[in-house]
Amino acid sequence: MNTEQSKQIISGQQANTVLEGDCIELMRQFRSCSVDFVLTDPPYLAHYCSRDGRRVANDGDATWLKPAFAEIFRVMQRDSFCVSFYGWHQADKFIAAWREAGFRLAGHLTFTKQYPSTERFLRYHHENAYLLAKGNPAQPEQRIPDVLEWKYSGNRLHPTQKPLCVLTPLIQCFSRSGDVVLDPFCGSGSTLLAAKLQGRRFIGIELDRHYSTIARDRLASRAA
Ligand SMILES: C[S@@+](CC[C@H](N)C(=O)[O-])C[C@H]1O[C@@H](n2cnc3c(N)ncnc32)[C@H](O)[C@@H]1O
Fold it and tell me: Atom 2 in ligand 1: which residue has the minimum CA distance?
Protein backbone atom coordinates (compact mmCIF):
# COMPACT_ATOMS: atom_id res chain seq x y z
CA MET A 1 0.00 0.00 0.00
CA ASN A 2 1.46 3.38 -0.92
CA THR A 3 1.11 6.56 1.12
CA GLU A 4 -1.49 8.05 -1.19
CA GLN A 5 -3.73 4.98 -0.86
CA SER A 6 -3.64 4.93 2.91
CA LYS A 7 -4.32 8.70 3.06
CA GLN A 8 -7.38 8.16 0.90
CA ILE A 9 -8.63 5.35 3.08
CA ILE A 10 -8.48 7.38 6.23
CA SER A 11 -9.46 10.81 5.00
CA GLY A 12 -12.23 9.35 2.84
CA GLN A 13 -13.74 7.59 5.87
CA GLN A 14 -13.45 4.38 3.88
CA ALA A 15 -12.80 2.05 6.75
CA ASN A 16 -13.26 -1.72 6.60
CA THR A 17 -9.69 -2.39 5.62
CA VAL A 18 -6.54 -4.14 6.80
CA LEU A 19 -3.36 -2.16 6.14
CA GLU A 20 -0.06 -3.99 6.03
CA GLY A 21 2.99 -2.29 7.53
CA ASP A 22 4.32 -0.55 10.60
CA CYS A 23 1.43 0.98 12.52
CA ILE A 24 3.43 4.01 13.65
CA GLU A 25 4.24 5.01 10.08
CA LEU A 26 0.73 4.24 8.83
CA MET A 27 -1.09 6.04 11.65
CA ARG A 28 1.03 9.14 10.94
CA GLN A 29 -0.93 9.35 7.69
CA PHE A 30 -4.31 9.28 9.47
CA ARG A 31 -6.17 12.48 10.21
CA SER A 32 -6.26 13.47 13.88
CA CYS A 33 -9.47 12.57 15.74
CA SER A 34 -10.66 10.19 13.00
CA VAL A 35 -11.22 6.98 15.01
CA ASP A 36 -14.06 6.36 17.49
CA PHE A 37 -12.68 3.45 19.52
CA VAL A 38 -9.36 1.60 19.71
CA LEU A 39 -9.29 -2.01 20.87
CA THR A 40 -5.82 -3.45 20.61
CA ASP A 41 -3.62 -6.33 21.64
CA PRO A 42 -0.02 -5.19 21.17
CA PRO A 43 3.03 -7.41 21.74
CA TYR A 44 3.43 -8.01 25.49
CA LEU A 45 7.24 -7.55 25.46
CA ALA A 46 7.49 -11.14 26.66
CA HIS A 47 9.72 -12.84 24.03
CA TYR A 48 6.75 -15.16 23.60
CA CYS A 49 7.21 -18.43 21.75
CA SER A 50 4.23 -20.78 21.43
CA ARG A 51 4.53 -24.53 21.99
CA ASP A 52 4.68 -25.00 18.23
CA GLY A 53 7.47 -22.40 17.83
CA ARG A 54 5.51 -19.35 16.57
CA ARG A 55 6.70 -15.91 17.69
CA VAL A 56 5.24 -12.37 17.71
CA ALA A 57 7.05 -9.52 15.89
CA ASN A 58 8.42 -6.74 18.16
CA ASP A 59 7.74 -8.82 21.28
CA GLY A 60 11.23 -8.34 22.68
CA ASP A 61 11.76 -4.67 21.93
CA ALA A 62 9.91 -1.71 23.48
CA THR A 63 11.08 1.03 21.08
CA TRP A 64 7.68 1.04 19.32
CA LEU A 65 5.65 1.42 22.52
CA LYS A 66 5.70 5.19 23.16
CA PRO A 67 5.48 6.32 19.51
CA ALA A 68 2.67 3.86 18.80
CA PHE A 69 0.51 5.03 21.72
CA ALA A 70 1.26 8.68 20.91
CA GLU A 71 -0.19 8.07 17.44
CA ILE A 72 -3.13 6.08 18.80
CA PHE A 73 -3.98 9.00 21.09
CA ARG A 74 -3.71 11.52 18.25
CA VAL A 75 -5.96 9.62 15.83
CA MET A 76 -8.68 9.01 18.45
CA GLN A 77 -11.70 11.28 18.64
CA ARG A 78 -11.83 13.69 21.54
CA ASP A 79 -13.56 12.12 24.54
CA SER A 80 -13.20 8.50 23.47
CA PHE A 81 -11.84 5.20 24.78
CA CYS A 82 -9.01 2.80 24.04
CA VAL A 83 -8.83 -0.70 25.53
CA SER A 84 -5.33 -2.18 25.40
CA PHE A 85 -4.26 -5.63 26.50
CA TYR A 86 -0.75 -5.70 27.98
CA GLY A 87 1.78 -7.99 29.64
CA TRP A 88 1.68 -7.76 33.46
CA HIS A 89 5.43 -8.08 33.90
CA GLN A 90 6.01 -4.97 31.72
CA ALA A 91 3.15 -2.96 33.26
CA ASP A 92 5.48 -0.08 34.16
CA LYS A 93 6.52 0.41 30.54
CA PHE A 94 2.95 0.26 29.24
CA ILE A 95 1.60 2.66 31.88
CA ALA A 96 4.45 5.12 31.24
CA ALA A 97 3.73 5.05 27.49
CA TRP A 98 -0.03 5.55 27.99
CA ARG A 99 0.43 8.43 30.43
CA GLU A 100 3.04 10.11 28.26
CA ALA A 101 0.68 9.90 25.27
CA GLY A 102 -2.00 11.75 27.28
CA PHE A 103 -4.27 8.89 28.36
CA ARG A 104 -6.04 8.73 31.70
CA LEU A 105 -6.29 5.26 33.26
CA ALA A 106 -10.07 4.79 33.49
CA GLY A 107 -10.33 1.14 34.49
CA HIS A 108 -8.57 -2.20 34.60
CA LEU A 109 -10.00 -5.40 33.15
CA THR A 110 -9.12 -8.92 34.24
CA PHE A 111 -10.07 -11.95 32.18
CA THR A 112 -10.02 -15.20 34.12
CA LYS A 113 -8.91 -18.40 32.41
CA GLN A 114 -9.97 -21.90 33.38
CA TYR A 115 -6.45 -23.04 32.50
CA PRO A 116 -3.01 -21.52 33.26
CA SER A 117 -1.21 -20.01 30.25
CA THR A 118 2.11 -20.73 32.04
CA GLU A 119 3.27 -21.99 35.41
CA ARG A 120 6.29 -20.77 37.33
CA PHE A 121 6.06 -19.07 40.71
CA LEU A 122 2.27 -19.11 40.25
CA ARG A 123 -0.21 -20.73 37.90
CA TYR A 124 -0.94 -17.78 35.62
CA HIS A 125 -4.69 -17.82 35.08
CA HIS A 126 -5.55 -14.38 33.77
CA GLU A 127 -5.13 -11.78 31.01
CA ASN A 128 -5.19 -8.02 31.59
CA ALA A 129 -6.27 -4.91 29.74
CA TYR A 130 -6.53 -1.24 30.67
CA LEU A 131 -9.42 1.03 29.79
CA LEU A 132 -7.77 4.29 28.69
CA ALA A 133 -9.60 7.59 28.25
CA LYS A 134 -8.77 10.46 25.94
CA GLY A 135 -10.47 13.54 27.40
CA ASN A 136 -13.74 12.92 29.22
CA PRO A 137 -15.81 10.32 27.39
CA ALA A 138 -19.47 9.84 28.30
CA GLN A 139 -20.30 6.89 30.52
CA PRO A 140 -21.35 3.78 28.60
CA GLU A 141 -25.08 3.11 28.47
CA GLN A 142 -24.55 -0.42 29.78
CA ARG A 143 -21.53 -0.87 32.00
CA ILE A 144 -19.74 -4.22 31.99
CA PRO A 145 -17.93 -5.80 34.95
CA ASP A 146 -14.16 -5.41 35.13
CA VAL A 147 -13.72 -9.15 35.70
CA LEU A 148 -14.79 -11.27 32.75
CA GLU A 149 -14.40 -14.88 31.69
CA TRP A 150 -11.86 -15.91 29.10
CA LYS A 151 -12.39 -18.65 26.55
CA TYR A 152 -9.52 -20.37 24.74
CA SER A 153 -9.47 -19.32 21.07
CA GLY A 154 -7.46 -22.34 19.92
CA ASN A 155 -4.69 -20.04 18.57
CA ARG A 156 -5.11 -21.63 15.16
CA LEU A 157 -4.78 -18.41 13.15
CA HIS A 158 -2.27 -16.62 15.38
CA PRO A 159 -0.12 -17.75 18.36
CA THR A 160 -1.84 -15.19 20.63
CA GLN A 161 -5.28 -15.12 19.00
CA LYS A 162 -7.91 -13.39 21.13
CA PRO A 163 -11.36 -14.98 21.42
CA LEU A 164 -14.25 -13.08 19.83
CA CYS A 165 -16.41 -13.62 22.93
CA VAL A 166 -13.93 -11.54 24.97
CA LEU A 167 -13.68 -8.72 22.42
CA THR A 168 -17.37 -8.40 21.59
CA PRO A 169 -18.60 -6.98 24.95
CA LEU A 170 -15.80 -4.38 24.83
CA ILE A 171 -16.90 -3.24 21.38
CA GLN A 172 -20.57 -3.18 22.42
CA CYS A 173 -19.78 -1.17 25.56
CA PHE A 174 -17.35 1.43 24.20
CA SER A 175 -18.52 2.05 20.63
CA ARG A 176 -21.75 2.49 18.71
CA SER A 177 -23.17 1.13 15.50
CA GLY A 178 -21.32 2.61 12.50
CA ASP A 179 -18.32 3.78 14.57
CA VAL A 180 -14.77 3.31 13.28
CA VAL A 181 -12.88 0.78 15.44
CA LEU A 182 -9.08 0.68 15.03
CA ASP A 183 -6.72 -2.15 15.96
CA PRO A 184 -3.16 -1.12 15.01
CA PHE A 185 -1.72 -4.52 16.10
CA CYS A 186 -4.45 -6.62 14.55
CA GLY A 187 -2.72 -10.00 14.03
CA SER A 188 -5.28 -12.38 12.54
CA GLY A 189 -8.00 -9.70 12.72
CA SER A 190 -10.01 -10.88 15.76
CA THR A 191 -10.89 -7.32 16.88
CA LEU A 192 -11.85 -6.38 13.33
CA LEU A 193 -14.13 -9.36 12.92
CA ALA A 194 -15.79 -8.73 16.28
CA ALA A 195 -16.30 -5.08 15.22
CA LYS A 196 -17.70 -6.07 11.84
CA LEU A 197 -20.15 -8.53 13.40
CA GLN A 198 -21.40 -5.72 15.68
CA GLY A 199 -22.06 -3.38 12.75
CA ARG A 200 -18.98 -1.20 13.32
CA ARG A 201 -16.53 -0.07 10.66
CA PHE A 202 -12.97 -1.29 11.20
CA ILE A 203 -9.36 -0.45 10.38
CA GLY A 204 -6.64 -2.99 11.11
CA ILE A 205 -2.89 -2.63 10.79
CA GLU A 206 -0.51 -5.58 10.84
CA LEU A 207 3.25 -5.68 10.24
CA ASP A 208 3.56 -9.34 9.35
CA ARG A 209 2.28 -10.15 5.86
CA HIS A 210 1.34 -13.68 6.88
CA TYR A 211 -1.11 -12.38 9.49
CA SER A 212 -2.41 -9.41 7.49
CA THR A 213 -3.35 -11.90 4.75
CA ILE A 214 -5.09 -14.15 7.28
CA ALA A 215 -6.98 -11.13 8.66
CA ARG A 216 -8.15 -10.05 5.20
CA ASP A 217 -9.26 -13.57 4.28
CA ARG A 218 -11.03 -13.97 7.59
CA LEU A 219 -12.93 -10.70 7.19
CA ALA A 220 -13.83 -11.50 3.62
CA SER A 221 -15.25 -14.90 4.59
CA ARG A 222 -16.75 -13.66 7.90
CA ALA A 223 -15.54 -16.92 9.49
CA ALA A 224 -14.59 -16.72 13.15
C1 LIG B 1 -0.46 -9.94 20.27
S2 LIG B 1 -0.50 -10.00 18.54
C3 LIG B 1 -2.21 -9.67 18.12
C4 LIG B 1 -3.04 -10.92 17.96
C5 LIG B 1 -4.49 -10.60 17.62
N6 LIG B 1 -5.17 -10.02 18.75
C7 LIG B 1 -5.26 -11.82 17.15
O8 LIG B 1 -6.27 -12.17 17.76
O9 LIG B 1 -4.83 -12.43 16.17
C10 LIG B 1 0.31 -8.49 18.11
C11 LIG B 1 0.51 -8.30 16.61
O12 LIG B 1 1.12 -7.03 16.39
C13 LIG B 1 1.96 -7.16 15.24
N14 LIG B 1 2.91 -6.02 15.29
C15 LIG B 1 4.02 -5.91 16.05
N16 LIG B 1 4.60 -4.71 15.84
C17 LIG B 1 3.82 -4.05 14.95
C18 LIG B 1 3.88 -2.76 14.35
N19 LIG B 1 4.87 -1.91 14.63
N20 LIG B 1 2.91 -2.41 13.48
C21 LIG B 1 1.90 -3.26 13.19
N22 LIG B 1 1.78 -4.50 13.71
C23 LIG B 1 2.73 -4.89 14.59
C24 LIG B 1 2.57 -8.53 15.36
O25 LIG B 1 3.02 -9.01 14.11
C26 LIG B 1 1.41 -9.35 15.95
O27 LIG B 1 0.70 -10.02 14.94
Answer: 187
